[in-house]
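Re: [ENG-882] Designed sequences occasionally contain unexpected residues at chain ends

Forwarding the minimal case from QA. Structure tokens:
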């Protein structure tokens, strides 16, 4: 049985279509990533799957249970770690877990055994009796992830699990997430706007943009699907003639317009810079800057959506600011 089966799931907030007719499957035992910029619709999708938000249209099952008709069974089958931290800082690590174990109705014997297992799994054995207020950001996140596993869920949802952590702690957290996926045998669905996170730990990634899934595959296959390096040309003038000329070159895989220029996908991008500059000159549009990116998930996102993650987040910040009538700064994007 699939861990998650999503069929035509849609969520509207007034005019905004936050999640637009999504269908996909997460296999049992998979570490599945939803990668997209802030505002892409990842949290809305997760909130529907964990039964906190009702869909506008469509259906989904989690561990075989319907997210609308069978909410209690879905909730018993899942663990959730939200973006915002929710630990009692005055209690110790073990006490925080014990509190939740009681909420789930575990017996005293079961509780003790499970807490030991979890603290071992997330590497907090030595700090079990320290108040959580003394933990580092990474340790707190590990404890929250452990807490999500307390009742042995079939599926663990992690919403931006490493957001706000420093890069080193983020890497350490990846180890733990991978380990618990393997050792606890739990299917994991995580959202992230960190390309590297999706690339490093996910078995498969859904690239989410503007409420839709642009592609789903393994990070390696998504990267390979680009078929070359992406050369960004900043151009001073109309690109119409140059586009015609690019279309006629056998060595150009594809190209798209971008703010102030063109993005061209070619093999061996660096060796093609001179050819591209010459084509642009011949077309009467001087190149003012060149950037070459080798294939990775970042260029896959660019190739699939026509924009970088950063550009998408800036768009979202702009529209949030115009909605609020406020300045763009702090409206969206970046770590929280
Ligand atoms: N309760 C709501 N009411 C109105 N609009 C909403 C609501 N929740 C989300 N949206 C809008 O839906 C879209 C998707 O938001 P969502 O939070 O799901 O994106 P996200 O990819 O999870 O980003 P983030 O990581 O910032 O949460 C955005 O345009 C957002 O403004």
């Amino acid at each position: 049985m699939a861990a998650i089966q999503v069929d035509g799931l849609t969520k509207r907030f007034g005019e905004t279509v936050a999640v637009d007719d999504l269908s996909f499957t997460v296999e049992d035992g998979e570490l599945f990533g939803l990668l997209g910029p802030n505002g892409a619709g990842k949290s809305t999708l997760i909130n529907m799957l964990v039964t906190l938000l009702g869909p506008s249209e469509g259906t989904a099952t989690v561990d075989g249970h319907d997210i609308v008709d069978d909410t209690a069974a879905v909730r018993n089958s899942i663990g959730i770690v939200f973006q915002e931290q929710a630990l009692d800082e005055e209690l110790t690590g073990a006490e925080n877990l014990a509190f939740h174990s009681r909420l789930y109705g575990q017996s005293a014997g079961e509780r003790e055994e499970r807490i030991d297992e979890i603290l071992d799994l997330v590497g907090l054995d030595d700090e079990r009796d320290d108040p959580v207020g003394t933990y580092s950001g990474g340790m707190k996140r590990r404890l929250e992830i452990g807490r999500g596993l307390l009742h042995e869920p079939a599926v663990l949802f992690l919403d931006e699990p490493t957001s706000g952590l420093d890069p080193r702690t983020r890497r350490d957290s990846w180890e733990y997430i991978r380990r618990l996926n393997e050792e606890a045998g739990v299917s994991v669905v995580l959202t992230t706007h960190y390309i590297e996170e999706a690339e490093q730990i996910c078995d498969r990634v859904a690239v989410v943009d503007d409420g839709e899934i642009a592609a789903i595959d393994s990070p390696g296959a998504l990267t390979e699907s680009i078929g070359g390096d992406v050369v960004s040309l900043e151009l001073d003038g109309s690109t119409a003639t140059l586009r015609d000329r690019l279309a006629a070159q056998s060595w150009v895989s594809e190209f798209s317009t971008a703010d102030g220029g063109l993005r061209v996908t070619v093999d061996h991008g660096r060796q093609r810079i001179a050819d591209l500059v010459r084509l642009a000159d011949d077309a009467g549009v001087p190149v003012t800057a060149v950037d070459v990116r080798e294939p990775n998930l970042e260029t896959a996102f660019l190739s699939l959506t026509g924009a970088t993650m950063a550009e998408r987040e800036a768009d979202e910040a702009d529209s949030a600011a115009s909605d609020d009538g406020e300045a763009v700064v702090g409206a969206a994007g970046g770590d929280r």
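QA comment: On inspection the terminal residues look reasonable. The CA atoms of residues 95 and 229 lie 52 Å apart. Proposing we downgrade this to a documentation issue.
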